[in-house]
Amino acid sequence: MLDLTGKNALVTGIANNRSIAWGIAQQLHQAGANIGVTYLPDEKGRFEKKVRELADELNPAFYVPCDVQNDQQVEDTFATVAEKWGKLDILIHCLAFADKEGLTGDFTAIPREAFTKSLDISTFSLTRLARSAKPLMTEGGSIITLTYLGGVKVIPNYNLMGVAKAGLEMSVRYLAAELGGQKIRVNGISAGPIRTLASSAVGGILDMIHHVEEIAPLHRTVTQIEVGNTAAFLASDLASGITGQIIYVDSGYEIMGM
Ligand code: NDP
Protein backbone atom coordinates (compact mmCIF):
# COMPACT_ATOMS: atom_id res chain seq x y z
CA MET A 1 0.00 0.00 0.00
CA LEU A 2 2.89 2.33 0.57
CA ASP A 3 3.56 3.41 -2.98
CA LEU A 4 5.40 6.61 -3.89
CA THR A 5 5.86 5.72 -7.54
CA GLY A 6 5.93 8.84 -9.69
CA LYS A 7 6.32 11.16 -6.68
CA ASN A 8 9.16 13.67 -6.71
CA ALA A 9 11.06 14.10 -3.44
CA LEU A 10 13.63 16.77 -2.66
CA VAL A 11 15.90 15.60 0.16
CA THR A 12 18.09 18.01 2.13
CA GLY A 13 20.61 17.16 4.84
CA ILE A 14 22.57 14.17 3.54
CA ALA A 15 26.12 14.55 4.85
CA ASN A 16 27.24 10.90 5.13
CA ASN A 17 25.95 7.36 5.58
CA ARG A 18 24.96 8.07 9.18
CA SER A 19 22.74 11.02 8.26
CA ILE A 20 19.06 10.62 9.07
CA ALA A 21 18.39 12.16 5.63
CA TRP A 22 20.21 9.21 4.08
CA GLY A 23 17.90 6.76 5.87
CA ILE A 24 14.93 8.79 4.61
CA ALA A 25 16.22 9.01 1.02
CA GLN A 26 16.73 5.23 0.91
CA GLN A 27 13.22 4.48 2.14
CA LEU A 28 11.57 7.03 -0.19
CA HIS A 29 13.50 5.50 -3.08
CA GLN A 30 12.50 2.00 -2.01
CA ALA A 31 8.85 3.11 -2.05
CA GLY A 32 9.30 4.27 -5.65
CA ALA A 33 9.89 8.02 -5.33
CA ASN A 34 12.20 9.99 -7.61
CA ILE A 35 14.91 11.63 -5.54
CA GLY A 36 16.61 15.02 -5.89
CA VAL A 37 19.46 15.76 -3.50
CA THR A 38 20.83 18.99 -2.06
CA TYR A 39 24.22 19.29 -0.41
CA LEU A 40 25.98 22.00 1.53
CA PRO A 41 28.64 23.37 -0.82
CA ASP A 42 32.23 23.90 0.29
CA GLU A 43 35.12 25.49 -1.57
CA LYS A 44 36.90 22.27 -2.48
CA GLY A 45 33.74 20.38 -3.45
CA ARG A 46 34.47 17.65 -0.92
CA PHE A 47 30.92 17.55 0.48
CA GLU A 48 29.46 17.23 -3.01
CA LYS A 49 31.83 14.37 -3.85
CA LYS A 50 30.96 12.54 -0.65
CA VAL A 51 27.22 12.95 -1.12
CA ARG A 52 27.43 11.83 -4.78
CA GLU A 53 29.47 8.73 -3.88
CA LEU A 54 26.85 7.77 -1.35
CA ALA A 55 23.62 8.70 -3.11
CA ASP A 56 24.41 7.67 -6.69
CA GLU A 57 22.91 4.24 -6.01
CA LEU A 58 19.49 5.92 -5.74
CA ASN A 59 19.90 7.47 -9.23
CA PRO A 60 18.98 11.00 -8.13
CA ALA A 61 17.50 13.21 -10.85
CA PHE A 62 19.91 15.96 -9.77
CA TYR A 63 22.30 17.20 -7.11
CA VAL A 64 22.13 20.90 -6.23
CA PRO A 65 24.21 23.01 -3.85
CA CYS A 66 21.95 24.54 -1.22
CA ASP A 67 23.14 26.43 1.81
CA VAL A 68 19.83 27.40 3.39
CA GLN A 69 21.31 30.73 4.50
CA ASN A 70 21.83 31.66 0.86
CA ASP A 71 18.58 32.84 -0.77
CA GLN A 72 20.02 32.62 -4.26
CA GLN A 73 20.97 28.97 -3.75
CA VAL A 74 17.50 28.21 -2.38
CA GLU A 75 15.91 29.83 -5.44
CA ASP A 76 18.26 27.98 -7.79
CA THR A 77 17.40 24.71 -6.05
CA PHE A 78 13.70 25.09 -6.72
CA ALA A 79 14.38 26.36 -10.24
CA THR A 80 16.14 23.02 -10.81
CA VAL A 81 13.15 21.17 -9.35
CA ALA A 82 10.83 23.09 -11.72
CA GLU A 83 13.07 22.43 -14.71
CA LYS A 84 13.63 18.70 -14.07
CA TRP A 85 10.26 17.68 -12.68
CA GLY A 86 7.74 20.49 -13.19
CA LYS A 87 6.14 19.65 -9.82
CA LEU A 88 7.26 18.66 -6.35
CA ASP A 89 5.44 16.21 -4.07
CA ILE A 90 7.72 15.68 -1.08
CA LEU A 91 10.13 18.00 0.71
CA ILE A 92 12.45 16.58 3.36
CA HIS A 93 13.92 19.22 5.67
CA CYS A 94 16.58 17.34 7.63
CA LEU A 95 19.21 19.83 8.71
CA ALA A 96 20.29 21.85 11.70
CA PHE A 97 23.29 23.70 13.02
CA ALA A 98 24.51 25.21 16.27
CA ASP A 99 27.95 26.43 17.21
CA LYS A 100 29.65 24.47 20.00
CA GLU A 101 29.07 27.35 22.42
CA GLY A 102 25.31 26.82 21.97
CA LEU A 103 25.54 23.14 22.90
CA THR A 104 27.47 23.25 26.13
CA GLY A 105 27.88 25.38 29.25
CA ASP A 106 25.45 27.91 30.65
CA PHE A 107 22.36 28.78 28.65
CA THR A 108 22.76 32.42 29.73
CA ALA A 109 26.18 32.51 28.04
CA ILE A 110 24.92 31.80 24.51
CA PRO A 111 26.18 34.63 22.25
CA ARG A 112 23.71 36.55 20.09
CA GLU A 113 25.52 35.56 16.87
CA ALA A 114 25.37 31.86 17.71
CA PHE A 115 21.68 32.16 18.60
CA THR A 116 20.74 33.98 15.41
CA LYS A 117 22.75 31.70 13.15
CA SER A 118 21.33 28.54 14.68
CA LEU A 119 17.72 29.70 14.40
CA ASP A 120 18.28 30.88 10.84
CA ILE A 121 19.68 27.53 9.70
CA SER A 122 17.70 25.16 11.90
CA THR A 123 14.32 26.89 12.17
CA PHE A 124 13.69 29.62 9.59
CA SER A 125 15.00 27.40 6.79
CA LEU A 126 11.87 25.22 6.98
CA THR A 127 9.68 28.23 6.26
CA ARG A 128 12.07 29.48 3.58
CA LEU A 129 12.08 26.13 1.78
CA ALA A 130 8.30 25.76 2.17
CA ARG A 131 7.83 29.18 0.56
CA SER A 132 9.64 28.04 -2.56
CA ALA A 133 8.11 24.56 -2.54
CA LYS A 134 4.54 25.87 -2.31
CA PRO A 135 4.07 26.96 -5.95
CA LEU A 136 5.60 23.67 -7.16
CA MET A 137 3.33 21.45 -5.05
CA THR A 138 0.56 21.81 -7.59
CA GLU A 139 -1.03 18.44 -6.76
CA GLY A 140 -0.66 18.82 -2.99
CA GLY A 141 2.37 17.60 -1.12
CA SER A 142 4.05 16.51 2.05
CA ILE A 143 6.67 18.53 3.90
CA ILE A 144 8.55 16.70 6.63
CA THR A 145 11.06 18.05 9.11
CA LEU A 146 13.17 16.48 11.87
CA THR A 147 12.96 17.52 15.47
CA TYR A 148 13.93 16.26 18.92
CA LEU A 149 12.43 16.06 22.42
CA GLY A 150 14.90 18.76 23.51
CA GLY A 151 12.54 21.25 21.84
CA VAL A 152 9.82 20.37 24.36
CA LYS A 153 11.70 19.35 27.53
CA VAL A 154 15.07 20.38 28.95
CA ILE A 155 17.80 17.95 27.89
CA PRO A 156 21.35 18.54 29.22
CA ASN A 157 23.56 20.35 26.67
CA TYR A 158 20.86 20.56 23.98
CA ASN A 159 20.49 24.22 25.03
CA LEU A 160 20.32 26.42 21.93
CA MET A 161 19.12 23.63 19.68
CA GLY A 162 16.19 23.16 22.07
CA VAL A 163 15.02 26.69 21.34
CA ALA A 164 15.55 26.13 17.62
CA LYS A 165 13.48 22.92 17.70
CA ALA A 166 10.69 24.57 19.73
CA GLY A 167 10.45 27.22 17.00
CA LEU A 168 10.62 24.54 14.34
CA GLU A 169 7.74 22.57 15.87
CA MET A 170 5.58 25.69 16.05
CA SER A 171 6.52 26.50 12.44
CA VAL A 172 5.16 23.05 11.49
CA ARG A 173 1.78 24.05 12.90
CA TYR A 174 1.62 27.50 11.29
CA LEU A 175 2.78 26.13 7.95
CA ALA A 176 0.25 23.29 8.15
CA ALA A 177 -2.52 25.80 8.82
CA GLU A 178 -1.53 27.97 5.86
CA LEU A 179 -0.79 25.25 3.34
CA GLY A 180 -3.64 22.86 4.13
CA GLY A 181 -5.88 24.67 1.62
CA GLN A 182 -3.45 23.59 -1.09
CA LYS A 183 -3.48 20.00 0.16
CA ILE A 184 0.06 20.40 1.38
CA ARG A 185 0.62 18.56 4.66
CA VAL A 186 3.40 19.58 7.05
CA ASN A 187 4.62 17.28 9.82
CA GLY A 188 7.64 16.75 12.04
CA ILE A 189 9.30 13.53 13.13
CA SER A 190 10.77 13.69 16.62
CA ALA A 191 13.52 11.08 16.49
CA GLY A 192 15.26 9.45 19.40
CA PRO A 193 19.02 10.09 19.71
CA ILE A 194 21.09 8.60 16.87
CA ARG A 195 24.88 8.91 16.44
CA THR A 196 25.47 11.27 13.50
CA LEU A 197 27.80 14.13 12.64
CA ALA A 198 25.34 16.72 13.99
CA SER A 199 24.48 14.81 17.17
CA SER A 200 28.14 14.24 18.04
CA ALA A 201 28.37 18.03 18.50
CA VAL A 202 25.88 17.75 21.36
CA GLY A 203 27.78 16.97 24.54
CA GLY A 204 26.98 13.49 25.94
CA ILE A 205 25.14 11.97 22.97
CA LEU A 206 26.28 8.49 24.03
CA ASP A 207 24.90 9.05 27.53
CA MET A 208 21.61 10.11 25.93
CA ILE A 209 21.51 6.90 23.89
CA HIS A 210 22.32 4.74 26.91
CA HIS A 211 19.62 6.48 28.92
CA VAL A 212 17.06 5.72 26.19
CA GLU A 213 18.19 2.09 26.13
CA GLU A 214 17.50 1.88 29.83
CA ILE A 215 14.24 3.82 30.08
CA ALA A 216 12.36 3.61 26.75
CA PRO A 217 9.63 0.96 26.44
CA LEU A 218 11.53 -0.69 23.55
CA HIS A 219 14.86 -0.51 25.46
CA ARG A 220 16.86 0.67 22.48
CA THR A 221 17.22 3.78 20.42
CA VAL A 222 16.01 4.00 16.82
CA THR A 223 17.76 3.72 13.46
CA GLN A 224 17.92 6.08 10.51
CA ILE A 225 15.93 3.52 8.51
CA GLU A 226 13.12 3.49 11.08
CA VAL A 227 12.91 7.27 10.81
CA GLY A 228 12.98 6.84 7.01
CA ASN A 229 10.05 4.42 7.18
CA THR A 230 7.97 6.95 9.09
CA ALA A 231 8.93 9.67 6.62
CA ALA A 232 7.83 7.42 3.74
CA PHE A 233 4.51 6.83 5.51
CA LEU A 234 4.01 10.57 6.13
CA ALA A 235 4.88 11.29 2.50
CA SER A 236 2.35 8.77 1.26
CA ASP A 237 -1.42 8.82 0.83
CA LEU A 238 -1.65 6.51 3.85
CA ALA A 239 -1.09 9.67 5.92
CA SER A 240 -3.53 11.82 3.92
CA GLY A 241 -5.39 12.89 7.08
CA ILE A 242 -2.31 13.86 9.10
CA THR A 243 -0.94 17.39 9.17
CA GLY A 244 0.56 19.77 11.72
CA GLN A 245 1.71 16.86 13.88
CA ILE A 246 4.92 15.87 15.58
CA ILE A 247 5.28 12.07 15.38
CA TYR A 248 7.66 10.51 17.91
CA VAL A 249 9.96 7.82 16.52
CA ASP A 250 11.87 7.27 19.75
CA SER A 251 11.16 3.74 21.00
CA GLY A 252 8.45 5.29 23.18
CA TYR A 253 10.85 7.29 25.36
CA GLU A 254 8.64 10.40 25.26
CA ILE A 255 5.77 8.79 27.21
CA MET A 256 7.91 7.97 30.25
CA GLY A 257 7.66 10.16 33.33
CA MET A 258 10.31 8.34 35.35
P1 NDP B 1 23.84 15.20 9.99
O1 NDP B 1 25.06 15.92 10.46
O2 NDP B 1 24.04 13.95 9.24
O3 NDP B 1 22.91 16.15 9.15
C1 NDP B 1 22.81 17.54 9.39
C2 NDP B 1 22.79 18.21 8.04
O4 NDP B 1 22.57 19.61 8.13
C3 NDP B 1 24.12 18.02 7.31
O5 NDP B 1 23.86 17.48 6.03
C4 NDP B 1 24.65 19.43 7.24
O6 NDP B 1 25.53 19.62 6.16
C5 NDP B 1 23.36 20.19 7.11
N1 NDP B 1 23.51 21.63 7.25
C6 NDP B 1 24.12 22.33 8.24
N2 NDP B 1 24.11 23.64 7.96
C7 NDP B 1 23.47 23.78 6.78
C8 NDP B 1 23.16 24.88 5.94
N3 NDP B 1 23.48 26.14 6.27
N4 NDP B 1 22.50 24.66 4.78
C9 NDP B 1 22.19 23.41 4.40
N5 NDP B 1 22.46 22.33 5.13
C10 NDP B 1 23.10 22.50 6.31
O7 NDP B 1 22.97 14.94 11.31
P2 NDP B 1 21.52 14.32 11.58
O8 NDP B 1 21.16 13.38 10.52
O9 NDP B 1 21.56 13.88 12.98
O10 NDP B 1 20.58 15.62 11.52
C11 NDP B 1 19.47 15.74 10.66
C12 NDP B 1 18.30 16.37 11.39
O11 NDP B 1 17.81 15.44 12.36
C13 NDP B 1 18.63 17.64 12.16
O12 NDP B 1 17.55 18.54 12.06
C14 NDP B 1 18.76 17.14 13.58
O13 NDP B 1 18.54 18.15 14.54
C15 NDP B 1 17.63 16.11 13.58
N6 NDP B 1 17.63 15.15 14.68
C16 NDP B 1 18.76 14.41 14.93
C17 NDP B 1 18.76 13.51 15.98
C18 NDP B 1 19.98 12.70 16.28
O14 NDP B 1 20.08 12.15 17.40
N7 NDP B 1 20.92 12.55 15.37
C19 NDP B 1 17.57 13.31 16.83
C20 NDP B 1 16.44 14.10 16.44
C21 NDP B 1 16.49 15.00 15.42
P3 NDP B 1 27.13 19.33 6.37
O15 NDP B 1 27.29 18.16 7.26
O16 NDP B 1 27.62 19.11 5.00
O17 NDP B 1 27.65 20.54 7.07
Give a description of the structure.
Keywords: Fatty acid biosynthesis, Fatty acid metabolism, Lipid biosynthesis, Lipid metabolism, NAD, Oxidoreductase. The active site is at residues 148, 158. Pathway: Lipid metabolism; fatty acid biosynthesis. The protein has 258 residues and is α/β, with parallel strands linked by helices. It has a single domain (6-247), classed as Rossmann fold (3-Layer(aba) Sandwich), CATH 3.40.50. Helices cover 40% and strands 14% of the residues. It has helices spanning 20-30, 46-55, 71-85, 112-133, 159-179, 205-215, 224-235, and strands spanning 8-11, 34-39, 62-65, 90-93, 141-147, 184-191, 246-249. It has a seven-stranded parallel beta sheet, with helices on both faces. Helix 1 packs across helix 7 and helix 4 (112-133) runs parallel beside helix 5 (159-179). The longest helix is centred in the middle third of the chain and has 22 residues, at 112-133. It is globular, with a radius of gyration of 17 Å. The relative contact order is 0.15.
Quick overview of this protein structure:
With 258 residues, this protein is α/β, with parallel strands linked by helices.
Q: What's the CATH architecture name?
A: 3-Layer(aba) Sandwich
Strand order of the largest sheet: 3-2-1-4-5-6-7
Rg of Cα set? 17 Å
- Classified in CATH, the superfamily is NAD(P)-binding Rossmann-like Domain
Bound molecules: NADPH dihydro-nicotinamide-adenine-dinucleotide phosphate
Strand content: 5-15%
